[in-house]
Design brief:
The protein is mostly helical. It contains 13 helices and two strands. β1 and β2 form a beta hairpin.
Length: about 280
């Protein structure tokens, strides 16, 4: 199971969402043949529950559509944005979008930013702003900070050796976010500035260090979990090394798990799908 698959299946953990009932994970077991998948609108209604492996297979199939250059696969991917699919399948389709899908995907994304599922609305807003930045989507992103959402990828214009490159607008967004009252919003902005590097790195690192010295073990655990990134950074590695000696067992375990995943990966391989 890829990190991006894990992220899609656990999308509800990336944002503080109203407790209006969990998405029912339902889908008949699907194969992973080639890079195509039968659109959900052409299938029977899924059963109320299926095993985890079937969900993983389905998500990975949708993500494979995003990597395909086939006209037919692109059409299937776009269809899964607004077709008769479950929320987790729709989230997978949004996550699978690449720059070459921009023009085809924008009309669907403009609808999905008002989706009744807050996670779908969030993910659609992030990708729509990345594809077509506007004052309207920027204002939505500012409001989404209040839900602890990870918003950095809305401003990503590329990457260098697994490290995100951000727009100037993103740097301003992150700088403003350092003063947000919600810890998750501050951490997301801090990590964005650290990733931007140069003169921006020090203010971001200061916020991360402050969180790791917090009296609350919950805050320290939250900070550690933000450090699952697809690149190596000496400052972040040092924070994780210290966290492995934290008084709280959960903090120590989280830091150790992240370090273990880093050790298990080859250089440059992503440890997390969360930008």
């Amino acid at each position: 199971m890829t990190p991006l698959t894990t992220h899609v299946l656990m999308t509800g953990h990336t944002v503080r969402r109203p407790r209006v009932g969990r998405v029912v994970f339902g889908m008949a077991c699907l194969g992973l043949a080639a890079t195509s998948v039968t659109p959900l609108s052409a299938q029977a209604d899924p059963p109320p529950a299926v095993d985890r492996s079937a969900r993983i297979a389905r998500v990975e199939t949708i993500l494979a559509l995003g990597r395909s250059q086939s006209t037919a696969d692109v059409a299937l991917l776009i269809r899964n944005l607004t077709g008769a699919v479950t929320s987790w399948e729709r989230a997978a389709a949004i996550k699978a979008l690449k720059p070459h899908h921009r023009e085809l995907a924008i009309p669907s994304l403009q609808t999905l930013i008002d989706d009744k599922d807050p996670v779908i609305a969030l993910e659609a807003t992030v990708v729509l702003h990345r594809f077509r930045p506007s004052p309207q989507t920027l204002a939505r992103l500012e409001r989404l900070r209040d839900r602890g959402a990870r918003l950095r990828s809305a401003f990503q214009k590329g990457e260098t050796r697994g490290r995100p490159d951000y727009t100037d607008e993103g740097i301003g967004f992150f700088t403003r976010g350092l003063a947000h009252p919600l810890l998750e919003a501050r951490l997301d902005s801090a990590l964005g500035l650290l990733e931007a590097g140069g003169d921006h790195k020090a203010p971001g690192l200061e916020v991360l260090e402050k969180a790791m010295h917090a009296g609350s073990a919950t805050d320290r655990l939250t900070a550690v979990r933000f450090l699952q990134v697809p690149y190596d950074d000496d400052a972040l590695i040092a924070i994780l090394d210290r966290a492995k000696e934290d008084p709280d067992e959960q903090v120590r375990l989280a830091a150790s798990n992240i370090q273990a995943r880093r050790s298990a990966k080859s250089p440059g391989a992503p440890m997390s799908s969360t930008p």
